[in-house]
Design brief:
The protein is an alpha+beta fold. It has 4 helices and 7 strands, in the order E-H-H-E-E-H-E-E-E-H-E. It has helices at 6-13, 17-25, 43-59, 103-109; strands at residues 3-5, 32-33, 39-42, 71-81, 85-92, 95-102, 116-120. Strand 5 (85-92) and strand 6 form a beta hairpin. The radius of gyration is 16 Å and the shape is globular. 20% of the residues are buried.
């Protein structure tokens, strides 16, 4: 299973490393020490925490000003394989992205829950919201 340093986890969660350290210190996200003595988060734990964090953020009423980019680095939170097709979910900060692709592509990429991945979106139109 892939593990992430506090800095890597912070980037995937869309927060500062200091915030990720505070969450780890408070026990909100489980860490362990690797062979080099660094605090790391197991990929599955980070995936579960990212979903929990996004769901909690969805209930908060915050004023946000965004212009979404077309590349969303995040962590794989679910992989559902069919005979031919597959569904992959990525939690990229507060954004949950779902992609339908071939099973062959998922297997070639070696995608599994807890892995770092980037969802790329191509569209003929771009919408900008200001809340």
């Amino acid at each position: 299973m892939q593990s992430y340093t506090i800095g890597q986890a912070a980037r995937l969660l869309g927060v500062s490393p200091d915030t990720a350290r505070r969450w780890a210190d408070a026990g909100r996200v489980v860490t362990r020490r690797d062979d080099a003595g660094r605090r790391v988060v197991d990929g599955r734990d980070l995936a579960a925490f990212s979903v929990e964090l996004a769901q909690a953020g969805a209930t908060e009423d915050e004023d946000t000003y965004t212009s979404a980019r077309n590349a969303f680095p995040g962590i794989v939170t679910a992989v559902k394989l069919g005979d031919v097709a597959a569904q992959v979910e990525i939690q990229a900060g507060p954004h949950r992205l779902v992609s339908l692709l071939t099973r062959e592509a998922v297997e070639e990429l070696g995608l599994e829950v807890g892995m770092e991945a980037t969802a790329r979106v191509k569209s003929t139109s771009v919408h900008i919201d200001r809340v």
